[in-house]
Description:
The protein is of the alpha+beta class and 207 residues long. The protein folds into two domains: 3-175, Gcn5-related N-acetyltransferase (GNAT) (Aminopeptidase, 3-Layer(aba) Sandwich); 181-207. It has helices at residues 18-24, 28-33, 42-58, 101-114, 131-139, 186-206, and strands spanning 3-4, 9-11, 62-68, 71-82, 85-92, 121-127, 143-154, 157-167. Helix 1 (18-24) packs across helix 3 (42-58). The protein starts with a strand and ends with a helix. The model is unreliable at 187-207 (pLDDT under 50). Bound molecules: coenzyme A. Coenzyme A (COA) binds at residues 29-30, 33-34, 90-92, 97-103, 126, 130-133, 135-136, 139. Keywords: Transferase. GO terms for molecular function: protein N-terminal-serine acetyltransferase activity; protein-N-terminal-alanine acetyltransferase activity. This is N-acetyltransferase.
Amino acid sequence: xxxxxxxxxxxxxxxxxxxxxxxxxxxxxxxxxxxxxxxxxxxxxxxxxxxxxxxxxxxxxxxxxxxxxxxxxxxxxxxxxxxxxxxxxxxxxxxxxxxxxxxxxxxxxxxxxxxxxxxxxxxxxxxxxxxxxxxxxxxxxxxxxxxxxxxxxxxxxxxxxxxxxxxxxxxxxxxxxxxxxxxxxxxxxxxxxxxxxxxxxxxxxxx
Length: 207
Ligand SMILES: CC(C)(COP(=O)(O)OP(=O)(O)OC[C@H]1O[C@@H](n2cnc3c(N)ncnc32)[C@H](O)[C@@H]1OP(=O)(O)O)[C@@H](O)C(=O)NCCC(=O)NCCS
């Protein structure tokens, strides 16, 4: 059940990960956007590791601790596995964000889910407004499917939720999502810069 990528090793979490999980889950972003308990105690981390081991046994949920060369950097899981479908969830510790780890680990799990596990559909759910998570899901090929009004309960209150899906036959190239800036939005800027660059060079030549 170990998955390897260029920089990361994904394994079921063990007791050796408890301190790092406890530390990472103090992060307000993890507490804001995921369903981890808040406040998050060391006992919560211990129970989490116990529970994930039980769920690996029963097959209802597969959770991997993400490690880079320095140690634990995140968690990624397939939840509510049933009837050929599952829900993907993830967090990356604050210090390790923005390096592509979420996308790298997520891609390995999607490959595993739609490959050897032969799942037919993956779902992604998030609190509406979680742009970082949405962009990660979009980069994995998920397609936006809508808003579930008051569809999630996090941090003690119900909020709207975004839903996206990926099915086994999908081309996994990222597509635009209506709630995110378009993927092509950089293009006109690049074109403007290119035109500006040419104009500047032309101006320089004229002088
Ligand atoms: C969401 C999260 C896992 C992203 O992890 P990461 O390792 O930083 O993500 P990556 O570096 O692989 O980036 C993946 C994509 O997300 C985008 N992204 C990452 N952080 C972002 C941010 N703060 N704001 C906007 N976009 C962001 C990246 O630009 C990239 O998108 P692109 O391919 O369109 O450029 C991380 O921010 C996190 O743990 N957040 C708190 C917990 C959480 O929200 N979990 C998800 C609950 S649904």
